[in-house]
Amino acid sequence: MAKKSIAKNYIYNMVYQVLILILPLITTPYLSRVLGAEGIGIYSYTYAIVTYFILFGSLGVALYGQREIAYAQDNPEKRTKVFIEIVIFRLITILLATVFYFFLFVKGKEYQLYYQILILELVAAIFDISWFFQGLEEFKKTVTRNVLVRICSVSLVFLLVKTREDLAKFTLIYSLADLIGNASLWFYLPKYLKGVKVKNINIKQHLPHIVLLFIPQIANQIYKILDTTMIGWLIEDKSETGYYEQGQKVIRLLLTVVNSLGIVMIPRMANAFANNDKKQIKSYMNMSFKFTFFLSFPIMLGIASISNAFVPIFFGPGYDKVNYIIYICCPMILLMGIENVIGTQYLLPTKRQKEYTKSVTAGVIVNFILNYILISLYQSIGAAVATVISQIVVDVLQYNNIKNEIKINELLKSASKYFISALVMFGFCILTKFFLNTNIVQNGIYNLSFNMQISKEHLFNTISIISQMAVGVIVYIATLIILKDDYVFKFLEKIKNKILRKKEEA
Q: Is the CB of residue 196 less than 8 Å from the CB of residue 80?
């Protein structure tokens, strides 16, 4: 099978991941006002609960399946056999998880109605075969399948969710969107599958390998949703869960842009590992680190700069606390980007699950202890602090596992240009805010807002965000050009070549 372009697959996967987040995010300003922080908090808490059962039911099959399909990319019979075995295995395990979920949460619990609706998420997990196409590096398929479904779900939210009593409708719409989106991918399968005799199907052989991958996967996923669960558990006011969830939505969206390369690189790393190509593996690692630094530094400092203007526009009144959560959590963009390169892109595809598991398990333990202490004292703010500290622990432990392959001075050298450029960018963004706060500009904005019949604060925040983003992009790229960064020059060279080709064709 011909290798797909890493750049194209990155774009496809980034579009897919951003789509999953951005379409619900479009509804966030509306839902923040309609459902309120408490309604958002109830949904976040109940969804976090069902996520645990999906995780235990899935047993890390998605990552294992992606890796095994990547190993068998060029063998249609083998990949068909692997696909059927994994689908049957996952069907059994998720059905078992659904039974436990039903008796533990659906019968006679608080928020029973929402738990009942969220059973659809477990059914959706059964139909999720995106791992198969990711293993084949067919990322375009996983993008196109969800576009119509997600757009329809967003439209239904605006049409049907009108009051705080419509939280159940909102939950049902998103759960059905996940189910239909996952089921739609099955229509692509016939092209990629060959006939396999029933007697050759062997489900048991996958169990030990899946369990080995399940442990790090479950540790990692629990680590990601532990904060939301513990806020809901320790704090009676579900608004705190809502504040934390809204802040994390922003961080997760920005992380998607940085981490989308990880899913693309897993099959590449697995294939290189299967061929014992150590030189290629290191080349992929260096490329991933550089790309992560290139994006994460400006995004991290950029969101810190515009957060105070962004939150009141996007979430509306009463969400001031979200601003502080974003401030505290913005380093996660860099920290989780580094973890994505070391853990997801390297340790797991090269079968070093033990090292990955130890690091993430340590993060879970640290996060649990700090959450228990800090949430009781500082509520959602405490959870944000705990998250950042525990992520630092994970990154340090993971780097310790690869310090012989990638030297710290190599990483610092690779990161230095992007860090310096991002700092210069941040400085200009602050100067832009200072300029916008001068009396002359303020008076101009006041007169403009009066003529446009909108609030001065809303117009000022909008102008501030747009101005800082425009200045930030220009200054960051200009600084990298001055520092002679390879990425920027390669990008400019591609643009130059395209212009020359078009001139020649004309």
A: yes
- Ordered by start, the domain boundaries in the chain are 37-202, 256-406, 417-505
- Over 50: is that where the pLDDT of 258 sits? yes
> Which residue is it, tokens 């979430």?
315
Highest mean pLDDT among 6-15, 250-259, 301-310: 301-310
pLDDT at residue 16 greater than cutoff 70: no
Instruction: Compute the distance between CA of residue 207 and CA of residue 196 in angstroms, rounded to an integer.
Output: 20
Instruction: Enter the tokens of residue 317.
Output: 């009144």
Distance from CA of residue 155 to its chain's centroid? 23
Residue 2 has pLDDT above 50, yes or no: no
Judge whether residue 241 has pLDDT over 50: yes
How far apart are alpha carbons 200 and 198 in whole angstroms?
5
pLDDT at 10: 54
Residue 106: DSSP 8-state: I
CA 260 to chain centre: 8
Q: What is the largest CA-CA distance in the chain?
A: 80
Q: Which residues contact 178 (CB under 8 A, 6 or more apart)?
A: 120, 121, 124
Confidence of residue 1 (pLDDT cuts 50, 70, 90): very low
Q: At what angle do helices 332-339 and 239-274 cross, to 10 degrees?
A: 30
421 near 483, Cβ under 8 Å?
yes
The two three-digit tokens of residue 171, written as one number: 């939950």
Q: How far apart are the first and last CA of the chain?
A: 35
